[in-house]
């Protein structure tokens, strides 16, 4: 039977001011997923990583996505066997569950001869996110599938706009501390001041314009979050220090990846991005927090077949 | 002495979801301003229109801008004589005071051999807005000077980003009712829900992307204001009716111009824009409210020398 192997990228959701709407795909870290098409209605999930994730399809993020796809193809005698080597750590805030979900949808579609549109793949993948986090959102799935920076104007009805993939480098650090998505949600203010919201959407407008006009200075000026970061960054030790030092080294800006604890920074050159990653590592090493750093260009393609 | 004649365009601030940040220049209506350079430190303002605006320089919007420019050029024996034929009605919400302010700065600069940048002209013109409304804002001045659709990411420090000038037509109606800017300000909520703000900046992002990618469908889907319009439209009789009928005729969308009472709608063709203007007029005629309608393309240039 046919088989296929994928590299499925990590992603950064809540791109600074673009809380709940802007996301970005990375080249590092990525998950590896291998798919086999079966000739019976069966889903087999195997994990080759160390994360002890459940492999029963109905409890596995990739599994529920494949179940939804099989439901759609109700008269066909087919199934999927998937082997996952997860390198995007669950709970890192780098889109680990979205990678499993989007990878499952993408891989199945490839084996089936690309019968679904990317929008349909987002639809299927959102069931995986629902299993992982309780909410059917596309913030990470969209950049994972489309690559570059994506705007999720609305999840229901689905309205996804791929923006572009700026020629920039990303440094990301995952300090090994636990930030529960539910805590990160709860800490957010439900009510905000109009004047702060105006400032935020001024930055959102500037960021989108900067991305589409390739204006790095404008991107840099717009990478400011006056609403979410001041609240959520409290949950991440040394956040302010990481940000301050990164900017001193010449990073354009950055912030919390997803709901944390990972932090990302954008830079114009690989040299700056590597220096930023070094200082990130140094800051956490000094206080004895285990950490992982990644440097890569913004991923312009999304999932890759290898 | 040198003299010069200008057409200074009306503008739409608070472009639907882009409250306080996005503005647009119109080809109709426009003010006419005629400038003479004098060889003594003197400012003479004449109004040829019917609006009985004060002509003492310190009480006139154009006058205070010219005063600021003269202050800057402290050692030169020069002055300005300006004749204004205002066609943008004060209080219409179509940027009447901004036209006087921006026109004054632009005209003086032309006579002086273009010694100031556009950003400096915005700076001078904001003193005119301050006289007119008490706040030094650039929402209308920026599109008046730059043309097209502009983003004022911030007024202080000044951060203006000209976006582009979509190939679209504007229908605008000014129903002759009074909406005081102070009332329009006061009625606004000071506190809003985060979820509404997220929806708003999703629309802002979509609108900016639509403008820069020339995607009229995306522009149309993004022309939605969940925060300001629902509150302010109460002050404008028949607002909902005008909007509904315009959309039925095929307009892409629109909303309140500035803080009202004018309403504008964007359309892809002149034919649709003219039909929209007709229905606008009909709706207000039926209830006996005097009204003025304008149809023009988005102004891609800003102020014109004639």
TrEMBL record, chains A, B:
Chief localization: cytoplasm
GO molecular function terms noted in the UniProt entry: ATP binding; homoserine kinase activity
Entries under Pfam families matching the protein: GHMP_kinases_C, GHMP_kinases_N
Family according to the record: Belongs to the GHMP kinase family. Homoserine kinase subfamily.
Binding site for ATP: 89-99
GO cellular component, one term: cytoplasm
Pathway linked to the protein: Amino-acid biosynthesis; L-threonine biosynthesis; L-threonine from L-aspartate: step 4/5
Top class in the EC scheme: transferase
Reaction catalyzed: L-homoserine + ATP = O-phospho-L-homoserine + ADP + H(+)
Domain GHMP kinase N-terminal intervals: 65-148
Name the UniProt record assigns to this protein: Homoserine kinase
Keywords: Amino-acid biosynthesis, ATP-binding, Cytoplasm, Kinase, Nucleotide-binding, Threonine biosynthesis, Transferase
General function of this protein: Catalyzes the ATP-dependent phosphorylation of L-homoserine to L-homoserine phosphate.
Domain GHMP kinase C-terminal residues, every copy: 208-284
Gene name for this UniProt entry: thrB
Domain of life: Bacteria
First and last residue of the signal peptide: none
GO biological process, one term: threonine biosynthetic process
């Amino acid at each position: 039977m046919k088989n296929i192997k994928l590299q499925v990228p990590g992603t950064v959701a809540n791109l600074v001011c673009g809380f709940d709407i802007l996301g970005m795909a990375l080249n590092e870290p990525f998950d590896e997923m291998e798919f086999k098409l079966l000739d019976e209605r069966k889903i087999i999930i195997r994990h080759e990583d160390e994360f002890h994730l459940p492999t029963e399809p109905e409890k596995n993020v990739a599994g529920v996505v494949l179940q939804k796809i099989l439901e759609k193809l109700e008269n066909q005698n087919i199934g999927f066997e998937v082997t996952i080597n997860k390198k995007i750590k669950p709970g890192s805030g780098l889109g680990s569950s979205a990678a499993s979900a989007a990878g499952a949808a993408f891989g199945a579609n490839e084996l089936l001869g690309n019968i679904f549109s990317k929008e349909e793949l987002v639809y299927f993948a959102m069931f995986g996110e629902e299993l992982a986090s309780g909410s059917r959102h596309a913030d990470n799935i969209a950049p994972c599938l489309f690559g570059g920076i994506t705007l999720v104007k609305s999840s229901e009805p689905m309205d996804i706009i791929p923006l572009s993939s700026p020629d920039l480098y990303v440094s990301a650090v995952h300090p090994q501390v636990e930030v529960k998505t539910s805590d990160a949600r709860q800490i957010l203010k439900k009510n905000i001041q109009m004047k702060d919201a105006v400032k935020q959407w001024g930055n959102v407008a500037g960021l989108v314009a900067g991305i589409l006009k390739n204006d790095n200075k404008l991107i840099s000026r717009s990478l400011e979050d006056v609403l979410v970061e001041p609240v959520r960054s409290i949950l991440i030790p040394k956040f302010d220090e990481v940000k301050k030092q990164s900017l001193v080294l010449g990073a354009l800006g950055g912030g919390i990846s997803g709901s944390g604890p990972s932090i990302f920074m954008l830079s114009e050159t690989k040299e700056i991005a590597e220096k930023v990653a070094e200082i990130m590592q140094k800051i956490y090493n000094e206080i004895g927090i285990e950490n992982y750093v990644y440097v890569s260009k913004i991923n312009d393609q999304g999932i890759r077949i290898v």
